[in-house]
């Protein structure tokens, strides 16, 4: 639940800035390196145009959160960020004080830019710290060291009301004591929110090639599970319990934008490779846009949007997605909402079987959630319930 007690799923706006200074070897996001300066005014104009098209599709709506993700949005000039936020407010109703997050990399941080983002309306920063030890930062291909990360954290804390940062764990050679100590150190610096992801080897990444060539060994499943348990125990003890499988916050400091996804709310996605899911004419539409930045730009300039695909979901597909997203949350899923969408309740028999195995648990009569053990095998739990 948010600080204001609001559990409505919400309507978010996601803006994808697709450029990075370098490609990290583990990354499979839609991020691109350009050796020539990016024409920011031209991209900003295209964002504005695509927003106008999305606004025609969604109709008038009240925005509950805005998220500038990437890529590396902190490579944008503050004026570009300000222009994008103004454009959101021109197209939809944006109440004062809603959460406006910008992702930033410690290496692309400058005090002046941070002040500029704050003046433009950003009130929350999510920093890609990833590790608090220099050897692992190098292994992860990051362009910053620990000293720079800590400096960026301090600067963010003194500039923005809210701060989150990301760490990647289950790294090669990382033992339990080292991770627990690093996590304690992170919490000493964290303002109110941490995103803690296990390192995974994704298709098409440089890590996939290196891993297949035997250049490093990943922790086995048991070791990774123990690191996951440590993550939950340490954050819980320090007052930032998990509210989602990989996200931890002081109560009331949860990311409202990410809650839009997990509570199966609606969002528009604008920019290269952005995804959206919103209700149009009473049905939930999925959109995704051209991933290549210049290709997206050409499409938007030619026809007002870069949408290259999507679908209209059936009620039962919506119910499956609700299950998939909602069981990631500690608050669980709203069973009456599931039933209203799918036209049938979840199987009581299957719930009981999973409960007997210690993988799910009811919360009162209206909610069901995965237990800590269930979270580790969440895909299997979801598949079982959705059958
Ligand atoms: S900075 Fe982030 S988005 Fe860019 S390559 Fe690295 S992990 Fe991917």
TrEMBL record:
Q: Which domain of life is it from?
A: Bacteria
Keyword hit for Iron-sulfur:
yes
Listed A to Z, the keywords are:
4Fe-4S, Chaperone, Cytoplasm, Heme, Iron, Iron-sulfur, Metal-binding, S-adenosyl-L-methionine
Q: Where in the cell is it found?
A: Cytoplasm
* Gene3D superfamilies per UniProt: 3.30.750.200
Q: Which GO terms describe its biological process?
A: porphyrin-containing compound biosynthetic process
One Gene Ontology term of the molecular function aspect: metal ion binding
Primary residence: cytoplasm
SMART domains, per database record: Elp3
Q: Which residues form the Radical SAM core domain?
A: 5-241
* Gene Ontology cellular-component terms listed: cytoplasm
Q: What does this protein do?
A: Probably acts as a heme chaperone, transferring heme to an unknown acceptor. Binds one molecule of heme per monomer, possibly covalently. Binds 1 [4Fe-4S] cluster. The cluster is coordinated with 3 cysteines and an exchangeable S-adenosyl-L-methionine.
PANTHER family for this protein? COPROPORPHYRINIGEN III OXIDASE, RADICAL S-ADENOSYL METHIONINE DOMAIN-CONTAINING PROTEIN 1, MITOCHONDRIAL
Give the similarity note: Belongs to the anaerobic coproporphyrinogen-III oxidase family. HemW subfamily.
Family matches, as NCBIfam families: hemN_rel
State what protein this is by name.
Answer: Heme chaperone HemW
Originating organism: Nitratireductor pacificus pht-3B
Q: What is the organism lineage in this UniProt record?
A: Bacteria, Pseudomonadati, Pseudomonadota, Alphaproteobacteria, Hyphomicrobiales
């Amino acid at each position: 639940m948010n600080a204001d007690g609001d559990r409505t799923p919400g309507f978010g706006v996601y803006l994808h800035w697709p450029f990075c200074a370098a490609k990290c070897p583990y990354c499979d996001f839609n991020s691109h390196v350009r050796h020539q300066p990016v024409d920011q005014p031209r991209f900003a104009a295209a964002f504005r145009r695509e927003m106008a098209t999305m606004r025609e599709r969604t109709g008038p709506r009240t925005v509950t959160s805005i998220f500038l993700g990437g890529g590396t949005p902190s490579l944008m000039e503050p004026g570009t960020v300000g222009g994008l936020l103004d454009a959101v407010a021109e197209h939809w109703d944006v109440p004062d004080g809603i959460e406006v997050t910008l992702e930033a990399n410690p290496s692309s941080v400058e005090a002046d830019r941070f002040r500029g983002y704050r003046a433009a309306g950003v009130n929350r920063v999510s920093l890609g710290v990833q590790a608090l030890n220099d050897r692992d930062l190098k292994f992860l291909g990051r362009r910053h060291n620990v000293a720079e990360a800590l400096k960026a954290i301090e600067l963010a804390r003194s500039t923005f009301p809210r701060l989150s940062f990301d760490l990647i764990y289950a790294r090669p050679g990382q033992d339990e004591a080292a991770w627990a100590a690093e996590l304690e150190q992170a919490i000493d610096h964290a303002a109110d929110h941490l995103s803690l992801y296990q390192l995974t080897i994704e298709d098409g990444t440089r890590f996939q090639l290196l891993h297949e060539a035997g250049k490093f060994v990943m922790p086995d499943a048991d070791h990774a599970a123990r690191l996951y348990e440590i993550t939950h125990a340490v954050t819980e003890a320090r007052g930032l319990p998990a509210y989602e499988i990989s996200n931890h916050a002081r109560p009331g400091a949860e990311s409202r934008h990410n809650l839009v996804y997990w509570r199966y709310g609606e969002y528009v996605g604008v920019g290269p490779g952005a995804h959206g899911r919103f209700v149009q004419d009473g049905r939930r539409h999925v959109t995704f846009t051209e991933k290549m930045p210049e290709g997206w730009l050409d499409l938007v300039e030619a026809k007002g949007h870069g949408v290259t695909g999507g679908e209209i979901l059936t009620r039962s597909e919506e119910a499956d997605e609700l299950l998939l997203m909602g069981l990631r949350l500690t608050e669980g899923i709203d069973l009456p909402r599931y039933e209203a969408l799918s036209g049938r309740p979840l199987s009581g028999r299957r719930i009981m079987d999973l409960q007997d195995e210690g993988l799910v648990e009811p919360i009162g009569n209206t909610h069901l959630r995965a237990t800590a053990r269930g979270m580790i095998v969440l895909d299997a739990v979801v598949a079982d319930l959705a059958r």
